[in-house]
Specification:
globular; 34% helix; six-stranded antiparallel beta sheet; binds adenosine-5'-triphosphate; 353 residues; two-stranded antiparallel sheet; CMGC/DYRK/DYRK2 protein kinase Pom1; disordered C terminus; binds magnesium ion; alpha+beta
Length: 353
């Protein structure tokens, strides 16, 4: 059961694994190995089984993930913090296998299924509240997720906006971070790009990026490399303070000795000027509390950035502003067509659930 080059386990549908799991379907395949939908004959339930490639790097990463998943089960025994529930891990023919609850499609697939038109604000709000439950607990336990992005947020059911955060393979404890090259580029925080040391605030940065993407359907900072990634951020928020830049080991890559951004043109010939666009222009959104929530997640300085605890108190989450008549300027009602997944039953079976 072993493919020499990649170290992948050769899966056959109907296979029995460790005398307990029967392979029903493929759910995902990546650099790490494969995720399979399986019947667990000990419980009679369907589970997701991640079979890790027989390669040292991926094995180590999967051990980190298994460790964090087990801790999450201790920290959140009632399964209230919207994180993937671990059930079992074992070795099968030299492959580490991790069994977890079975979930549905990821947020990227949801956004795509809606034709990249963006999700309705009520759905975004519901998903945000759940992400904040996860991020609050992680912060309380000093854990950084390190790879929050739409692909790592999964719907629990096809017709509800209930979600779970998955993929703790890059996670680490604050102060014990070993890697400098983390987070997926579009969701990568300035402190990681600039090399200034990082902590739980990097996940709040990713959250801000994800909220903008759920609203418009497209990544807010679609940098094709780190240079452009930073240029995308500056295009809206301008350059960072010199006091912050002083703490950045990689500042010379992006800024000259006067702290001026080095001129940069993307491969498509796009140049990006600092402060060229405003957040509300980019999002085409007039919902003040939503815009301010995103802006508070996307603060350059990690110390100024909103924490999960502060986020739970924000008007966008509490809805306070909506109940305060005539204090805010009249807002245009945002009408968006809901994604088919969340409204009407599908005409054909949905993938992954
Ligand atoms: P890579 O780093 O190559 O992206 P990964 O380590 O991030 O892989 P995961 O994110 O854990 O791997 O899983 C990859 C994909 O498999 C997910 O994006 C999701 O679509 C699917 N998947 C993972 N876990 C589950 C699950 N419990 N239920 C349903 N689908 C899942
Ligand atoms: Mg992933
Ligand atoms: Mg991963």
């Amino acid at each position: 059961g072993f493919d020499d080059e990649r170290g992948d386990y050769r899966v056959i549908l109907g296979d029995h694994i460790a005398y307990r799991y029967e392979v029903v379907d493929f759910l995902g395949k990546g650099s790490f190995g494969q995720v399979l939908r399986c019947i667990d004959y000990e419980t009679g339930k369907l589970v997701a089984l991640k079979i890790i490639r027989n390669k040292k790097r991926f094995h180590i990463q999967a051990l980190v993930e298994t460790n964090i998943l087990q801790k999450i089960r201790e920290w959140d025994p009632m399964d209230e913090a919207c994180m993937l529930q671990y059930s079992d891990h074992f070795y099968f023919r030299d492959h580490l296998c991790v069994a977890t609850e079975l979930l549905g499609v990821n947020l990227y697939e949801l956004i795509k299924s809606n034709g990249f038109k963006g999700l309705p604000i009520v759905v975004i709000k519901s998903i945000t509240k759940q992400l904040l439950l996860c991020l609050s607990l992680l912060k309380q336990k000093n854990v950084i997720h390190c790879d929050l992005k739409p692909e790592n947020i999964l719907l629990c059911h096809p017709f509800k906006s209930q979600i779970k955060v998955i993929d703790f393979g890059s996670s680490c404890f604050e102060g014990e971070s070993v890697y400098t090259y983390i987070q997926s580029r579009f969701y990568r925080s300035p402190e990681v790009i600039l090399g200034m040391g990082y902590g739980t605030p990097i996940d709040m940065w990713s959250l801000g990026c994800i909220l903008a993407e759920m609203y418009t359907g497209f990544p807010i900072f679609p940098g094709e490399n780190e240079q452009e990634q930073l240029a995308c951020i500056m295009e809206i928020f301008g350059p960072p303070d010199s006091s912050m830049l002083e703490k950045c080991s990689r500042r010379k890559v992006f800024f000259d000795s006067f702290g001026k951004p080095r001129p940069f043109v993307s491969s498509k010939g796009v140049s990006r000027r600092p402060f060229a666009k405003s957040l509300h222009q980019v999002l085409e959104c007039k919902d003040i509390s939503f815009l301010s929530f995103i802006a508070d997640c996307l603060k350059w300085d990690p110390e100024e950035r909103m924490t999960p605890f502060e986020a739970i108190q924000h008007d966008f989450i509490t809805g306070n502003q909506d109940r305060r008549p005539n204090t805010a300027p009249a807002r245009q009602k945002i009408v968006k067509s809901p994604p088919t997944y969340l409204e009407s039953p599908p005409s054909r079976p949905l993938p992954n659930l």
